[in-house]
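[step 3/7] fold_predict: job queued, chain A
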Amino acid sequence: MKIYIVTYELNEADTPAHHSRVIEAIQYQGEAVEIQHGVWILKSVYAHSAIRKGIEKELDPGDKLFVGSLKGYSAMGETFSKKAASLIASVWHTAKVPVTKNYLR
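[step 4/7] structure written:
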C-alpha cells in the first residue's frame, strides 16, 4: 500500500453531480480522506498513473488533476482530522509538531 495526495480543480461549469462523480472516482481507488476542499489523502494498492487514469475519466475539459506519491514523514500537527492522521500513520510514521500558535484564527 502507498499513500498519495490527489488534488483537483474543476472548471467553472462544475455541477454537484459532476463533483460527486469525481469524488466517487477518487474513493474507488482506495481508502480516501478529504483534508481540504479538492485535496485528498489516498491509501491505495494502485500506481499513481492508474489512479490518475481512473479519476480523469470523470473530468471535463478545463478540469485539473494532480496525483503524487507521499513518502517519509509528515508534519500536520493537530490541524487535520484523526481519520486523515490515522490513514497516513497506517503506512508510515507521522511526526507531530507542537502547535504554538494558530495562525488560521
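[step 5/7] annotate
The helical segments are 16-28, 48-56, 82-89.
The first helix runs from residue 16 to 28.
exit 0
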